[in-house]
């Protein structure tokens, strides 16, 4: 075996190391295995791929691209097993790394063309391979903040979930295009001013990709802000409806109070004349008109309005809501967060029990305020079907409705350094939450 040729191939195939780094940075928060196991697996795959690939290429004089294309499905399989994301998001991150490395290889072909003119092998010389690795490291430095902060934020944004099936075609298409644009021989890059123009123009590719990711990040942030505004609007609508109902109730009370003397005179007349049937007929609508009561579930008016809204929805669907509430009027938590938490939990439970028979449509909800400002929440309801859980303890089944919104609840709990446990026991779905007050409180 030609030792020099082997090391030349090894230098070229070493590109999978920075490619691997670029693929794991965005998904650092989604790993399913320990960091130690991940490092061992990553190192083993890199060493085997580079060593075995270099040996095969040296023996059969193959292009390193062919070996990489063979390894790609196996590398993605290992990547898929180690991280807990949808396959579309994982494929996007994986192919994004491939796209950036393809650009570095293409650019290096133009940059090192004068050094490779007398190279008749289908592989870079070692010095050219090192230049390619250097360009790749420069790209990692330029994209590090994007990969480390912006892409993870995009992956976590639920508003983009339906777009990933389309977004994956961006790095796929770009990778294929750059492989196709890479000159097969260095002399092809030396035609006229092709090399000079290409080395300037080609930098537009990573710049365009950088701007694309930041525009997506900006759009995702605006979507999140709009969702929060819509949530606040919904809460205001609930509060307004609750206020109007209360106002209507007090108007009825004032009307009855104003007519009280007249009613008492009529009752006195029927009683003196011993007209029992007329007396009952007269007071019966009077009694019915005063049966409606405005019950307060929370001392806080905003939370009370939200609770009343969901109680009315439950009554429409013939769902029994059993409440146990012990909260003061003022809480150290943001009203919008507690309203979102309350709404998501009740909506999930209502969707789950709506599939059950009427006698099983029951939701138990308790919320309390402990000494030291700790908030405790518990919901319990029956469900139908099988619920599977991911590594974060959240339901991941797409057939059941319990998983919808619980990720949002989990984010609220984390915001207050709390803890949430979701479990199924004896046919019941239980959510236990503990939230600590913010430090400034």
Q: SS-based structural class?
A: alpha+beta
Portion of residues in beta strands equals 5-15%
Mean pLDDT: 83
The gyration radius over C-alpha positions equals 33 Å
Strand order of the largest sheet: 1-2-3-5-4
Number of strands: 5
Shape call: elongated
Termini gap = 71 Å
Order of helices and strands: HHHHHHHHHHHHHEHEEHEE
- Uncertain segments are 398-404
* Sheet with most strands: 5 strands, mixed
| Count of separate DSSP helical elements | 15
Helix content class: 55-70%
Topology:
Layout: H1 3-13, H2 16-24, H3 35-60, H4 64-82, H5 87-111, H6 126-156, H7 164-167, H8 169-181, H9 194-201, H10 204-258, H11 260-272, H12 276-289, H13 301-316, E1 320-326, H14 335-353, E2 362-369, E3 375-382, H15 406-415, E4 419-425, E5 428-435
Helix pairs in contact: 1-3, 1-6, 2-5, 3-4, 5-6, 5-8, 6-10, 10-13, 11-12, 13-14, 14-15
Structure write-up:
With 441 residues, the protein is α+β, with helices and mostly antiparallel strands. Helix content is 62%, strand content 9%. The chain contains 15 helices and five strands. Strands 1-2-3-5-4 form a five-stranded mixed sheet, with helices on one face. Helix 2 (16-24) packs antiparallel against helix 5 (87-111) and helix 3 (35-60) runs antiparallel to helix 4. The longest helix has 55 residues, at 204-258. It is elongated and about 125 Å long. Residues 398-404 have low confidence and may be disordered.
């Amino acid at each position: 075996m030609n030792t020099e040729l082997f090391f030349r191939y090894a230098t070229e195939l070493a590109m999978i190391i920075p490619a691997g780094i670029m693929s794991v940075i965005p998904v650092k928060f989604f790993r399913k295995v320990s960091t130690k196991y991940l490092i061992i697996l990553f190192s083993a795959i890199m060493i085997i791929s580079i060593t075995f690939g270099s040996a095969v290429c040296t023996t059969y004089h193959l292009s390193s691209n062919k070996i990489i294309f063979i390894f790609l499905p196996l590398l993605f399989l290992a990547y898929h097993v180690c991280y807990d994301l949808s396959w579309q998001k994982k494929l996007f991150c994986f192919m994004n790394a491939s796209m950036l490395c393809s650009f570095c290889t293409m650019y290096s072909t133009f940059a090192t063309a004068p050094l490779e003119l007398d190279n008749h092998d289908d592989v870079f010389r070692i010095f050219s391979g090192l230049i390619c690795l250097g360009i790749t490291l420069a790209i990692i430095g330029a994209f590090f903040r994007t990969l480390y902060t912006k892409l993870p934020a995009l992956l976590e944004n639920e508003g983009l979930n339906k777009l990933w099936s389309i977004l994956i075609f961006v790095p796929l298409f770009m990778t294929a295009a750059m492989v196709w644009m890479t000159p097969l021989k260095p002399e092809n890059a030396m035609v006229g001013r092709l090399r000079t123009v290409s080395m300037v123009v080609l930098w537009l590719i990573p710049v365009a990709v950088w701007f694309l990711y930041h525009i997506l990040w900006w759009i995702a942030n605006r979507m999140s802000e709009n969702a929060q505004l819509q949530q606040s609007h919904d809460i205001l609508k609930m509060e307004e409806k609750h206020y109007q109902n209360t106002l209507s109730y007090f108007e009825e009370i004032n009307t009855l109070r104003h007519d009280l003397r007249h009613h008492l005179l009529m009752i006195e007349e029927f009683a003196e004349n011993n007209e029992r049937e007329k007396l009952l007929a007269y007071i019966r609508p009077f009694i019915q008109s005063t049966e409606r009561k405005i019950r307060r579930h929370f001392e806080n008016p905003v939370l009370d309005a939200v609770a009343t809204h969901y109680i009315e929805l439950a009554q429409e669907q013939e769902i029994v809501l059993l409440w146990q509430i012990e909260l003061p009027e003022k809480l150290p938590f943001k009203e919008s967060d507690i309203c979102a938490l309350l709404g998501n939990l009740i909506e999930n439970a209502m969707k789950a029990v709506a599939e059950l028979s009427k006698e099983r449509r029951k939701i138990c909800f308790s919320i309390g305020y402990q000494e030291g400002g700790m908030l405790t929440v518990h919901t319990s309801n029956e469900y139908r079907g099988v619920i599977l859980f991911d590594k974060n303890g959240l339901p991941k089944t797409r057939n059941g409705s319990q998983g919808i919104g619980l990720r949002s609840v989990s984010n609220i709990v984390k915001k207050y350094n709390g803890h949430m446990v979701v479990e199924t026991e004896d046919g019941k779905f239980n959510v236990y939450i503990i939230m600590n007050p913010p430090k400034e409180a």
